[in-house]
Design brief:
The complex is a heterodimer of chains A (273) and B (442).
Chain A (H helix, E strand, L loop, with lengths): L2 H29 L2 H29 L7 H19 L9 H16 L15 H30 L6 H6 L3 H34 L7 H22 L4 H25 L8
Helix pairs in contact in A: 1-2, 1-4, 2-3, 3-4, 3-5, 4-5, 5-7, 5-9, 7-8, 7-9, 8-9
Chain B lengths: L12 H9 L2 H20 L6 H19 L8 H31 L3 H6 L5 E5 L4 H8 L5 E5 L2 E8 L6 H22 L1 E7 L4 E3 L5 E12 L5 E12 L4 E8 L4 E3 L2 E18 L2 E9 L3 E3 H4 L6 E9 L2 E4 L2 E4 L8 E8 L2 E9 L3 E4 L2 E18 L3 H20 L3 E8 L2 E7 L4 H18 L1
Helix pairs in contact in B: 2-4, 4-7, 7-9
The chains are: A mainly alpha (273), B alpha+beta (442).
The structure holds protoporphyrin IX containing FE (HEM).
Protoporphyrin IX containing FE sits at the interface of chains B and A.
Chain lengths: 273, 442
């Protein structure tokens, strides 16, 4: 069995595990029973470990980090969200957050599964350490925006459901959830800034110009400014809670568009086709 | 102080203007408009031909696009105006926030400032004698003591530097916008192309590029691993030169310019004959032509255009293609014009003649040429400095959160207070946990 076959098997099990975890989380939420929620947490952790193994195997097989084409970025992006979730939000108190984050991870993994899994040799412009830093920071940034997105959906929903024993146990208090979302966004914002700066340095080396208003650059700027507006509104107008949550949702839609929409619909030097 | 001129108080029209132009409200409006412009510029293809917009968007929409300049958003006057306003806004808000930030840095962490704090992040009671231990465990190892109105206090602050975070990040952004604008005005972006042995003058500069060697490193599957050009850059003004290599992602730096390996294509040697007399010999890149009349007015008005070179030609129903990038079976697609009229168009193998009357063109020595892009941007260091400041500033703003604590010695107990503008919840959680631990262990 070669590395690619091993990765394919690991990836398939990972995808199924994320799906099971998402279903369990939804059951937990719908039935308000503790058991599926607890189980979902373990399954998600197992999926994350398998996912990490799949990425490691692919890296060894390809002789480089899996950061270069649509498939590789999608699977790494989902991994980034899982990582952020595992680090920041796996506490029991935040368990219900899984109901909102696990399906997002599964959807992105599903998108990855639809892409070509071939290991392509890199064209010269993509052989750069700056690319590795650029894309790694993007995974971290997008991952934390992904968790903030899940957290914001949860916040918006929490506003609509009545306080009961279940919400008291597994939903963080509203203020805490709002602050958690803010923390994820400021972390993501710092990293998105790094993504843009390292991308600019790489573009300067590869194409001689650090900023050319290429669609991908422009969309990442849109995302960056939307989150900057969010941060400003929080400070000056006290836009916390619901309005902030809506902003985080819009921000993440921009993230997804920057990543999938631009590559699919708009010609760009960043489309790896 | 000089900055009092920038105080926002007062009813003078100047002050009102200053208030508007330095306000965060304006910043939000501008950022909103810039986002909208970027969305337009990120969706509508930029710099295409009017016809392309008609095909893509229909007659009415394309007219709106062309009229409003949505086909060139980032150079449109209204976009430049928005960026100019943002620049003024950033500049004024940085200027105005400097004194208050400095004051906060200098005076905001004294005991006095602590005592003025009406909403501390926590307010806890400790058993007597535990205050220093508590502060140490909370990360405040060397508190100062002071007595105010007969009451004894211990106090300390940390991560004061954090107050500069947001200010520095905005200064960084300001520098980036200024640098970008300067770069738009001052940057050089041109190119030369040629084959090994040729020296090309850089248009408009005292710089010439001599191509010493050019290699394309191929992998087994024929994909390109790297393009490598060995160059000598001559400064024709002071007769000095610099030798070096330019690869994709690794430009050669010389005389304040970067020489980038940008593109490649095929070139071929074309010898022009009249009978047996050699009229001309030169290297022609794909897309170039040889025009005999330009060489001498007596020559026949013939022009040979070299359209493309296929190193390993195969014929397909869709036309000629190359089977590999290796020079196994090279052929050239050409057109021949006589007095501006097309007289011949064909594919010809290397070494075969292209004939017209008693003239003939002989193609030989196909080889790849390299296109070297030459760029310089004197504002690059400024933009880099802006980027670094912005990142440091953001890090300080988000992760170096100033905190202060003070202990009031009361009869029978020690009362500790803490204040943090940002991250107050975590700070207070930690203090509460610590107090619980300490109070249970006594
Ligand atoms: C490119 C545009 C801008 C970006 C990306 C940006 C970003 C930021 C960020 C990240 C913060 C920190 C938020 C936090 O600590 O949670 C902030 C705060 C702030 N920004 Fe901006 N900003 C921009 C433009 C402006 C402009 C033009 C002004 C001028 C009025 C402004 C005024 C402020 C103020 C007053 C604060 C609060 C500072 C504090 O409380 O420490 N910003 N901005």
């Amino acid at each position: 069995m070669n590395y690619l076959q091993a990765e394919t098997i690991l990836f398939s099990i990972t995808a199924v595990a994320y799906l099971i975890s998402a279903v369990l989380y939804i059951l937990f939420f719908a039935l308000k029973k503790e058991k599926p929620g607890e189980l979902a947490g373990y399954v998600l952790l197992a999926a994350f470990i398998l996912h990490t193994a799949a990425l490691v195997v692919r890296s060894i097989g390809a002789g480089r980090l899996p950061l270069s084409n649509q498939y590789e970025f999608a699977t790494s992006f989902a991994w980034g969200i899982a990582l952020s979730y595992v680090i920041f939000a796996r506490k029991k108190k935040y368990r219900a957050l899984g109901t909102f984050v696990a399906p997002v991870i599964f959807l992105i993994i599903g998108y990855a599964a639809m892409q070509s899994r071939e290991v392509n040799e890199l064209m010269p412009a993509l052989q750069s350490n700056w690319l590795v830093i650029h894309v790694s920071t993007a995974i971290i940034s997008y991952g934390s925006f992904g968790v903030a997105f899940g957290g914001s959906l949860m916040y918006l929903l929490r506003d609509r459901i009545h306080e009961n024993e279940f919400t008291r146990h597994y939903f963080p208090e509203k203020e805490r959830l709002d602050v958690l979302n803010y923390r994820m966004i400021s972390f993501g914002f710092l990293f998105l800034t790094l993504v843009i700066v390292t991308g600019a340095i790489w573009a300067q080396k590869a194409w001689g110009r650090y900023w050319t208003w290429d669609p991908k650059e422009t969309w990442s700027l849109v995302t960056w400014i939307i989150y900057a507006i969010y941060l400003h509104l929080r400070i000056t107008r006290g836009w916390r809670g619901k309005k902030a949550a809506w902003f985080a949702v819009i921000g993440f839609i921009c993230v997804i568009f920057t990543y999938i929409g631009v590559n699919t619909w708009i010609p760009s030097i960043h489309s790896y086709a | 102080m000089w900055w009092q001129a920038f105080s926002l108080e007062g009813n003078l029209p100047m002050k009102k203007m200053l208030r508007v132009f330095s306000s965060m409200y304006l910043a939000l409006v501008l950022l909103g408009l810039i986002v909208l412009s970027c969305v337009l510029g990120g969706i509508i293809p930029q710099g295409a031909l009017p016809q392309d917009y008609r095909d893509l968007f229909g007659e009415t929409f394309s007219q709106v696009i062309l009229f409003a300049g949505f086909d060139r958003v980032f150079t449109a006057w209204w976009f430049i105006l928005l960026m100019g306003l943002l620049l003024i806004n950033l500049f004024l808000c940085s200027l105005i926030r400097f004194p208050s930030t400095l004051k906060l840095y200098r005076e905001g962490f004294t005991l006095n400032s602590c005592l003025l704090q009406t909403k501390p992040s926590f307010d806890l009671c400790l058993s007597p004698g535990r205050a220093r231990d508590f502060l140490q465990q909370l990360g405040f190892a060397k508190p100062l003591s002071q007595t105010v109105d007969g009451v004894h206090y211990l106090y300390q602050s940390r991560r004061r530097l954090g107050v500069w975070g947001s200010w520095l990040s905005h200064l960084g952004m300001l520098i980036i916008v200024v640098g970008f604008a300067l770069g738009q005005l001052l940057h050089v972006d041109t190119s030369v192309y040629g084959v090994p042995g040729q020296t090309k003058q850089v248009p408009g500069h005292d710089i010439a590029v001599q191509i010493d060697a050019f290699d394309i490193i191929l992998r087994d599957d024929h994909t390109v691993e790297q393009y490598i050009a060995d160059l000598t850059i001559h400064n024709t003004k002071d007769n000095t030169s610099v030798k070096g290599q330019s690869k994709v992602n690794h430009p050669l730096e010389a005389y304040g310019m970067s020489f980038l390996q940008n593109a490649t294509g095929w070139a071929v040697n074309v010898s022009s004959f009249r009978g047996e007399e050699l009229l001309d010999e030169r290297i022609v890149c794909a897309g170039e032509s040889v025009e005999l009349k330009d060489l001498h007015e007596d020559y026949m008005d013939l022009a040979l255009v070299v359209h493309a070179l296929y190193p390993d030609v195969i014929m397909t129903p869709a036309g000629p293609r190359t089977a590999s990038p290796h020079l196994n079976n090279p052929a050239v697609l050409f057109s021949l014009y006589y007095q501006g009229k097309l007289v011949d168009q064909n594919l010809v193998g290397i070494g075969h003649d292209i004939k017209a009357s008693d003239y003939r063109f002989v193609l030989s020595s196909p080889q790849p040429y390299t296109l070297i892009q030459i760029v310089s941007d004197p504002s690059l260091p400024l933009v880099m400095a802006g980027g670094v400041l912005m990142l440091i500033g953001l890090f300080l703003a988000f992760y170096v959160r100033p905190q202060q604590v003070w202990v009031r010695y009361e009869e029978g107990q020690e009362r500790v207070y803490g204040y943090a503008k940002k991250g107050a919840d975590l700070f207070s959680d930690k203090a509460v946990m610590l107090t619980k631990e300490m109070n249970t262990t006594t």
